[in-house]
Amino acid sequence: MLYWVVKAILGPILHLVFRPWAEGVENVPREGPVILAGNHLSFADHFFGPLFLPRKVISLGKAEYFTGTGIKGLISRLFFTGVGTVPIDRSGGKASEAALRTGLRILASGKILGIYPEGTRSPDGRLYKGKTGVARLALESRAPVIPWAMVNTFEMMPTGRLIPKLGIRPGVRFGKPLDFSRYYGMEDDRLVLRAVTDEIMYALMELSGQEYVDKYAQSAKAEMARAAKEAKEAKKTAAVAADAEKSGSAE
Questions:
Q1: pLDDT at 209 over 90
Q2: Taking CA atoms, which of 69, 73, 124, 238 is between 20 and 30 Å from 138?
Q3: In what residue span(s) does the Phospholipid/glycerol acyltransferase domain sit (predicted)?
C-alpha cells in the first residue's frame, strides 16, 4: 500500500519537474513473474526506473537500509519500503543463497523483481560486469528477463550528489524479453551462468549506449579510492618537501 501512496504523491511531481521519458513499456508483461535486469547509474534509478509501469516493482536491498536508528533510520525504512525494496543480507556465502531464494519467492508469487546485476552503482557512468545471480534467478524461475536501461540519471544525480540537477531529462528503456529457454536445467553450470549474464549486460549496453568495462564495479570503486588516496598522500608529501625546501632557502 505504501508503495502506491509514494508513487501517487511523487509521480506527478517527478513528471512536472524532470519531464522523464520511457521507451518500450509495452515489452513488460501486464501479469505474471518478470525479471527487470537494469544498469545502475544513480540513486535516482529507484524513482525513475519503475515510474512508467502500472505494476509494482520489488527490488532487493541491503538490510542496513532498514536497521538504522533515530529519525534518519525511520526515514530510510519508510523510503525503501515505499519504493518496493525488500531487505536482504548481502554479506556473501549463505547470505547470497538466502537472497536468491527471496528473489525466487517473489517471482513465484507472480510479481516483478527489479535487479541490478552490477551489484552497486556505477562509479563513472560506464557499464560494468554483471554478477551471475541474475542468471540463476532467470534459469531457476524461468521468468522472462527484460533489459531495463536507465539513461541520463548519472548526469542528473551521480554518486555523492544529494540534490538532482535540473535541466537533464532522465529516461528508461525497456528492451524485448530475452529468451534463455535453451539453458533451462543448467543453472548449476558456471559457464552457462556467465554466458546468460553477459548476454543480459550486452543487451543493456545496446539499450543504454554506455561504454562497457569488463570488471566488477566494486573492484573499480576500490581502485579509484586507492588511487585517490595515493594522489592525496603524494600531494601531501610534495607540500612537505616544498615547505622544507623553502625553509632551507630562507636560512
A1: yes
A2: 124
A3: 34-153
Interstrand relation of 85-88 and 57-62 (parallel, antiparallel or unpaired): parallel
Q: What is the DSSP letter of 176?
A: P
Asked which of 6-20, 59-73, 124-138, 201-215 is least confident by mean pLDDT, the reply is 59-73
Render pLDDT for 82-120 as a digit per residue (tens, 0 to 9): 777 877 766 666 667 888 899 999 999 999 999 999 989
Nearest by Cα to 151 from 168, 165, 176: 168
Residue-number span of the structural domain to which 147 is assigned? 2-213
CATH number at residue 26: 3.40.1130.10
How far is 51 from 11, CA to CA, in rounded Å? 7
Together in a domain, 155 and 222:
no
Say if residue 153 is in the same domain as residue 232.
Answer: no
CA-only gyration radius of the chain, Å = 21
> How far apart are alpha carbons 120 and 42 in whole angstroms?
9
Cα–Cα separations (whole angstroms), residue 162 to 7, 42, 159: 20, 11, 8
For residue 113, the cross-strand partners are 35, 58
Q: Are strands 85-88 and 112-115 parallel, antiparallel or unpaired?
A: unpaired
- At position 111, the amino acid (one-letter code) is K
Q: By the 8 A CB rule, do 166 and 19 touch? A: no
CB 86 within 8 A of CB 102: yes
> What is the rounded average pLDDT of the residues 187-194?
96
Q: What is the mean pLDDT of the chain?
A: 90
Q: Confidence class of residue 77 from pLDDT cuts 50, 70 and 90?
A: confident
